[in-house]
Amino acid sequence: MNEAAVCAGTFDPITMGHLDVIERAARVFPRVVVGVATNPGKNPLFGLEERIELVKQSTAHLAGIEIDSFSGLLVDFAESKDVKVIVRGLRAFSDFEYEFQMALTNRKLRPKLETVFLMPKQDYSYVSSSNVREVAQLGGDTSLFVPPPVQAALKARFSAG
C-alpha cells in the first residue's frame, strides 16, 4: 500500500497495545504519522512533550514513523499531513460502537479519508492507559503493559510522590 496512515491518541502513556497497533500499521503503510493529541480535558499524567518523547523512544525501532502533536479534529490533522487513512485499534467488542461512530463522523467530514481497524495481540486486548496509570500509582509492576521507557517514566513520576 502506498498511502500514508495516521495513528492518533492521547498516549498517556503509550502502552504495548498502542505500540502493537503502530507496528502493525508500519507493516502495511510506508509512512505512519503518530498523532499525539493535546486533549487537555483529559488532565493527562504526562505533559505533551513528555508523551511525544515517550512515543519517540518506544517507536525508535520502526522505519517510516513520524511523530507530531495535534489539537482539534483528527481529520484536519490527517489532511495537514497528507494522510488518506486513519488507523484505529480495537481492543474489544466494546470499543467497536464508539470507533464505528467516529469513523462514520470522520467519513462525513472528509469523504476521501478511510478508517482501518487493527486489533492488537490478544495479550494486549485488555490494556488501557488508565489501567496502567492506576497500577503504576499503586506501586505495581507495569513491565507487561508498557515499553521500557514508559515503565521508567512511570516509576520516576510516582516515586517522586
From TrEMBL:
| EC numbers, comma separated | 2.7.7.3
Q: What subcellular locations does the record give?
A: Cytoplasm
Q: A Pfam family in this protein?
A: CTP_transf_like
Site note Transition state stabilizer, residues: 18
Q: Example GO biological process term? A: coenzyme A biosynthetic process
Residues spanning the signal sequence: none
The answer, when asked if Nucleotide-binding is one of the entry's keywords, is yes
Instruction: Please write the reaction equations for the catalytic activity of this protein.
Output: (R)-4'-phosphopantetheine + ATP + H(+) = 3'-dephospho-CoA + diphosphate
Q: Which HAMAP family match?
A: PPAT_bact
Q: Which family does it belong to?
A: Belongs to the bacterial CoaD family.
What is the protein name stated in its UniProt record?
Phosphopantetheine adenylyltransferase
Species = Pontiella desulfatans
